[in-house]
Design a protein that fits this description.
Oligomer: single chain
Mean pLDDT: 90
Structural class: alpha+beta
Low-confidence stretches: none
Radius of gyration: 12 Å
């Protein structure tokens, strides 16, 4: 899971990037997006983290994760 301090950091970092007109690429060890891997591999609070990323869909260019060794890909229909 991503704890409260990390979620605050993520929100503040994305807000700063948005204000500066920057694009961001998210890298995480465990997947955040459902259907990109088995449910057991997702971070426990992925709905909360995904909600933050979706707020910044014009700032977040992509999100990549490892952990699942079979690979996987899922485009978020909500944020594009």
């Amino acid at each position: 899971a991503i704890d409260e301090a990390q979620k605050v950091w993520l929100y503040e970092t994305l807000e700063s990037a948005k204000e500066c007109g920057q694009k961001v690429i998210i890298l995480s060890h465990q997947p955040i997006m459902p259907e990109s891997s088995g449910d057991v591999c997702l971070i426990w609070n992925y709905p909360e983290v995904l909600a933050i990323l979706r707020q910044y869909k014009c700032t977040v260019a992509a999100a990549f994760a490892g952990h699942a060794h079979k690979g996987g890909y899922k485009r978020d229909e909500e944020s594009g």
